[in-house]
Amino acid sequence: MTELSKSLLYLDGVTVSFDGFRALNNLSLVVGHGEMRAIIGPNGAGKTTMMDVITGKTRPDKGDVLFNGERDLTKLDEAEIAELGIGRKFQRPTVFESHSVLDNIVLALEGPRGVFSSLFARLTGRECDRIDEVLATIRLSDRRDELAGSLSHGQKQWLEIGMLLAQDPALLLVDEPAAGMTDAETAETAALLRRIAETHSVVVVEHDMTFVRDLGVRVTVLHEGSVLAEGSLDQVSADERVIEVYLGR
Amino acid sequence: MPLGLSRIGVAFLLSLAVAAVLVPVLNLTVASDSTWHVSTTNVVLFGKYLCYALLALSIDLVWGYCGILSLGHGAFFALGGYAMGMHLMREIGSRGVYGNPVLPDFMVFLNWKELPWYWYGFDQFWFAALMVVLAPGALAFVFGMFAFRSRVTGVYLSIITQAMTFALLLAFFRNDMGFGGNNGLTDFKGVLGFDLQNNATRCGLFALSAIALAGGFLACRAIVSSKLGKVLVAVRDAESRTRFIGYRVEHYKLFVFTVSAMMAGVAGALYVPQVGIINPGEFAPANSIEAVIWVAVGGRGTLVGAALGALVVNVGKSWFTGALPELWLFALGGLFIFVTLFLPKGLLGLVRSRRVASAAPVEAPGEPVTVIDRQAAE
Ligand SMILES: Nc1ncnc2c1ncn2[C@@H]1O[C@H](COP(=O)(O)OP(=O)(O)O)[C@@H](O)[C@H]1O
Ligand SMILES: [Mg+2]
What we know:
The complex is a heterodimer of chains A (249) and B (378).
Chain A: H1 2-6, E1 7-18, E2 21-32, E3 36-40, H2 47-54, E4 62-67, E5 71-72, H3 78-84, E6 86-89, H4 101-108, H5 115-119, H6 125-137, H7 153-167, E7 171-175, H8 183-197, E8 201-205, H9 209-215, E9 218-223, E10 226-231, H10 233-238, H11 240-247
Parallel strand pairs in A: 3-8, 3-9, 6-7, 7-8
Antiparallel strand pairs in A: 1-2, 1-4, 4-5, 9-10
Helix pairs in contact in A: 4-7, 6-7, 8-9
Chain B: H1 7-28, H2 40-66, H3 73-92, H4 105-109, H5 125-149, H6 154-173, E1 185-186, E2 190-191, E3 194-195, H7 199-225, H8 227-237, H9 239-244, H10 249-275, E4 277-278, H11 285-298, H12 304-323, H13 328-342, H14 346-358, H15 374-377
Antiparallel strand pairs in B: 1-4, 2-3
Helix pairs in contact in B: 1-7, 2-7, 2-10, 2-11, 2-12, 3-5, 3-10, 5-10, 7-8, 7-10, 8-10, 11-12, 11-13, 11-14, 12-14
The complex binds adenosine-5'-diphosphate (ADP) and magnesium ion.
The site of adenosine-5'-diphosphate (ADP) has 10 residues of chain A, from α2.
């Protein structure tokens, strides 16, 4: 059980089926404190479903999902899991389109989430500084008052990462952050994630191999709902089965 | 500006203030043969419309800002109305046809010997006033607790709100419920000692309705411009996203649904003394749907638009039911389809886009982007 007690995120034997089809099949995965992990795998491998299970959107049929070695995430709902310190960026960027960029960050900003504290909430000076800092990090300072819906696709991806930063969770789950980005944007996003990983644990799902190489972290290959290989990018890309899965399609 | 009041919002409040003073003055002090005279019929009619406007405002708060399409808000309006009606019945006292000092006429007629327990306290105005908000609020709270916790949304939620008001319609029709059956509560004499047939009382009720509408508007404005209001819009636009950043969506929905039901109750309570009757017909599902149409016509998610929609549609209805009564429902349906297709932001959207087009200074269309005031923070 040493692995369990050292882990931040611990999945063991997780199975999820949709109408008999196993999207996750006996999946086991351990992410340590302060670690950044890249998850790769062909479309339909179950990467997004895995994030759904961790964040409480989907309940597994079987298996354990533990946070910090003690909290059973399968018993909690989305809001409780978020409050524990797990933040998520979706595959399709989802920002609050009819709110300004600033208000998107304000809503995500770490702090009390209750109805009445929201009703009487006032931003403190410290919070304003924090917001400025996040906006600068995601390079949207000069668009702070524009509606999030008017941003470009890449900027929405960044705004969503900014919301994660504002939320300041212990663990960030980032689903395909570079999708639809130009090469330059992709490189910048990788650099941003590396910086975030200095102070947070991160699990990032990505297709783009250059991006994964830029991250330079341990890689887990998912295939048909379970782990196919794990190791450095060079190790896994030399793996026979991984080559077959990727090239065989 | 405080509460993020737009110029349209300020104009709306000013018009209400002017109407609250001017209409009673023109009714009470100007001779009835003068062109400036406002007839008592019109005072009552417009007082009624102001109550509808408050109902529309309450619907806009949940629908326009939180995406909860309630097709049962008429029930909260009617409950507030019944609570007030019960007080007015008790205030009749021995002036009723049967002269019973305690029992309302319909109970004497049914041969009841005692006042049912749930009528206790309604002889006190303060108690009735409390019930005006508590009864609809409690129903909304219990209903919302079950519906929102089981994550019933969209069309399904709309359907069960219709079922709720329909169930109440059937219940209130029953004589043994003790609310006057299909005749409802009527033949009121006065309120707080003021004679309801008196012009001055009617003017007072009109002014009170205008004040209540203004108060309701300010309350809604305060809610939607707070951080809570931003959470509501977030829920409306991306409910599951809101959950993933840690907000308990069901609590937010429950809060706004309950507040909204209370507002609808106040509207009903002001309505009843002006029209002089409350009966189960107010629970009719069609009433709730009509109220939603007012909001759509005026402009969903704009507050002022919702209130204006209620006024405009009802003025139209009064004219139509006088001129072409059979066609009113077709006209209403047609209006709804027209607005949905061509004016997604309603009449207020039309006004705003014209203003933006004609005025040179840059102003974002749609809701003004209210930014949390940094000065206030420091
Ligand atoms: N809600 C759902 N209902 C049915 N099938 C689903 C659902 N969510 C995912 N799946 C299926 O599960 C498999 C894994 O999907 P997903 O986790 O999105 O893959 P990835 O993110 O790795 O591309 C896919 O075959 C997908 O069609
Ligand atoms: Mg995916």
